[in-house]
Amino acid sequence: MSAETKLVSRTEASIYHAHIDALMTLQPEISGVLISTVDGFEIAAKLTPGLSAAKLSAMTSSLLALAEAMCKETASGACRDMVIDAEKSRILLMELPHHKQKLVLAVLCTNKVTLGQVLWAVRTCREQLSRRLDML
Predict the structure, then answer these.
(1) What is residue 40's DSSP assignment?
(2) What topology is assigned to 3-134 in CATH?
(3) Which range has the worst mean pLDDT, 17-26, 48-57, 85-94, 98-107?
(4) What are the residues whose beta carbons fall under 8 Å from the beta carbon of 72, sequence distance 6 or more?
(5) For the chain, what are the domain ranges?
(6) To bridge 96 with a disulfide, which of 17, 70, 91, 105 should be the other Cys (CB 3.0-4.6 Å)?
(7) pTM summary value
(8) Which pLDDT belongs to residue 70?
């Protein structure tokens, strides 16, 4: 039994995968999407070969903890999103509201993408996914 089936129902897993596929179809510059718990466990992923969803989930958890600590220290309010702009790609980390547990949406894309365009697409996906999960 995979970690995914332990953490979410088959219905939820199907919803996650459908939204991941739709997002990647809408934005071809997106090379990977990961949904994980804030404590570092993979829920759903579609990544390029060679990338480990388990490792990325753990790193995402650590990065979010640091970002939340920085936001708290600077009195910036709750941390919602993080953008990592690297030499060859961009990584977006966003909270994914869910009534059962706090989740994180991580999106990998090329650095050629217009940041505003991909942010809009990912935020729209996040809102649609959150609404869909709330109906369960």
Answers:
(1) S
(2) Beta-Lactamase (3.30.450)
(3) 98-107
(4) none
(5) 3-134
(6) 105
(7) 0.90
(8) 95
